[in-house]
Amino acid sequence: MPDKVRVILITDGDRCAQHVVESIGAQLGLRCISASAGNPTPIEGEEIVRLLKTVPYDPVLVMFDDRGRRDKGKGETALEYVACHPDIEVLGAVAVASNTPGIEGVPADICVNVSGDITNVSVDKDGRERPKRGDKPLVSGDTVDVLNTVDVPVIVGVGDIGKMDKADDIRRGSPITRKAIEEILARNGIQTEQNR
User: Fold this and answer.
1) Is the pLDDT assigned to residue 140 strictly greater than 90?
2) Longest CA–CA separation in the chain, Å
């Protein structure tokens, strides 16, 4: 494995999101740090980096969650530590929308809407498109503002992982979240077990 561990940051970590991310990881032949899941994120950034250094191969999916806090909570603090660590290479982030008030939001490169289509406009928690403001779609969520302060080459916005009025249900293969992760991999030139 190269010196740096390649990761995809996911700004959701509740039980539903954890099951979805673990399932997609298994489908695509990616690793997943399940210990980072929780609502809020239960472990510190230092522990996440230590776990990342033990994986047999990458890319690795890592979950972060602030449990609805609009200020910098445990998830954002851990995400910032991981993203800025010299031994970690961030491939991209799946920015998850929520209804948390009073947050800045983060400009995304693209979004995946509730229909599973890639779009250049913002999406809300339900994956529905919102009116466009500015050049890029803006994703508002409780754990996304920190993405404005770290170097993330690709940000893909989605609604609430595993939900979105059942459109992203794990029994359907969570197609919206999967497409977001596949888009980050594709933009980094990474082939998965599914498309080799």
Assistant:
1) no
2) 43
> Which pair of structure tokens corresponds to residue 65?
């969650």
Q: Is residue 19 a contact partner of residue 103, using CB atoms and an 8 Å limit?
A: no
3-state secondary structure of 33: strand
Query: Between 15-28 and 175-187, two packed helices, what is the crossing angle to 10 degrees?
Result: 50
Contacts of 99 (CB under 8 A, 6+ apart): 124, 125
Q: Which whole-number Å values give the CA distances from 75 to 36, 145, 157, 178, in the listed order? A: 9, 11, 17, 22
Kindly report whether the global pTM for this prediction surpasses the value 0.90: yes
pLDDT tens-digit readout, 159-188: 999 999 999 999 999 999 999 999 999 999
> How big is the chain, counted in residues?
196
Instruction: Estimate to the nearest angstrom the gap between the alpha carbon of 144 and the chain centroid.
Output: 9
